[in-house]
Amino acid sequence: MSGSAFSDRADDERDAQAVLTVDLDALVANWRHLAARAAPAECGAAVKADAYGIGIEAAVPALARAGCLTFFVAHASEGRRARAALGAAGLGARIFVLNGFHPDAAGFDSYRAHGLDAVLGSAEELRAWSEARAAAGGGRLPDAALHVDTGMNRLGFPVEDARFLSQAELGSAGITLVMSHLVSAEDAADPINARQIAAFDHARERALRAYPASLANSSGIFLPARPFHDLVRPGFALYGGNPTPGRPNPMLPVATLRARVLQLRSVPAGATAGYNGRWTADRPSRLATIALGYADGVPIGGSGIDGRGAEVFVDGTACPLVGRISMDLSIADVTHLPAGALAAGDSVEWLGPHGDVDALAARCGTIGYEILVNLGRRHRRDYIGNGTGTA
Question: Is residue 98 part of a domain?
Fold first, then answer.
């Protein structure tokens, strides 16, 4: 790398106006907690969407070193990144590509070269994958999982179609896992959970019974029915999301996002803030302009309008956002802070120990998954911990 490139990177580090800190020890501790709960079933990890926004290259080796042997991604491109990260760390694991096998998008040779296994959800995919394996000849061939649709109506074989697949069809595709996906596991009282568990068992009454099975996602690991089978596939909970909404979060926070205060200003009662003047001060107010906007992954739904909106935290004290969030900036009302508690150049917490991802999402009118996967790429990213899971 040229001296100029090093200099540019150093300038970027100094100029970062928001810092995303990822605690790899907390990530590993969360995985171990879920693995212990699901034992003796194996505990895998969903690392799609850049490991839910925290970074595949950091998350996958940390989890693999902790003992995770199976990863799930959405796209083959994510699988290639995960495989490269494992290879760089001298580690190995299975990597399943959830979105199916489409030869025109990512050919069989790419799956084979990078050690990726496909998740097959239709007769057409099963046939194309089997034909590609047959044409590939000898050597190590990638395997596959069979996806059965038990109620999501999104991807997967209908239950009755899956039931009557033959051992020959399954064998030629290299099936090593049968899986489905829960629709409403976060609501333990929803009767669809029992229906899906029964449908999955029904699908596996014939040839599929011979194969390891996977049904439970993060919230599924906490269902009273314990539908763990042979492998559970947590995602959101690994990264600090609450798999048991309405109850205390059993997971540790993994990501903290802090942003710089660029300016402080005093405004009189009746002054407006932000685009279109959607917020009006009802008293003389002190406002802080923060270097964080929707280009950084802050949902526009978190805008402080009509008495609602998101908050930032200053030493644990909540400060509501006011006015519409801009592309690069947001504004917080800090009138209630003691004099001298905040100055230009200080940083405030947007996401973290005080700004819990689920509570933050609720204030923005969205879900915690969206908050995580949209964490912006122009933040400086600091990874802490060594992945021992001792957080």
Answer: yes
> Above 90 in pLDDT, residue 71?
yes
Per the model's pLDDT, the better-predicted residue between 102 and 106 turns out to be: 102
Within this chain, do residues 67 and 196 fall inside the same structural domain, yes or no? yes
Residue 334 carries which DSSP code?
Answer: -
Whole-structure pTM value: 0.93
Residue 379: CB partners within 8 Å, gap ≥ 6? 16, 18, 19, 20, 257, 296
Note whether residue 40 is domain-resident. yes
Q: Summarize the confidence of residues 314-330 as an average pLDDT.
A: 96
Binding residue per annotation — 327?
Answer: yes
- 269 and 203 share one domain: no
Evaluate whether residue 7 is within a structural domain.
no
Domain that holds residue 350: 255-355
Domains in the chain, number:
2
Annotated catalytic, 369?
Answer: no
Whether 275 is catalytic = yes
| Residue from 48, 294, 369, 383 carrying the catalytic annotation | 48
Q: How far, in Å, CA of 88 to CA of 85, rounded?
A: 5
The dihedrals phi and psi of 267, each to the nearest 5 degrees, come to -130, 150
Judge whether 133 is annotated as a binding position: no
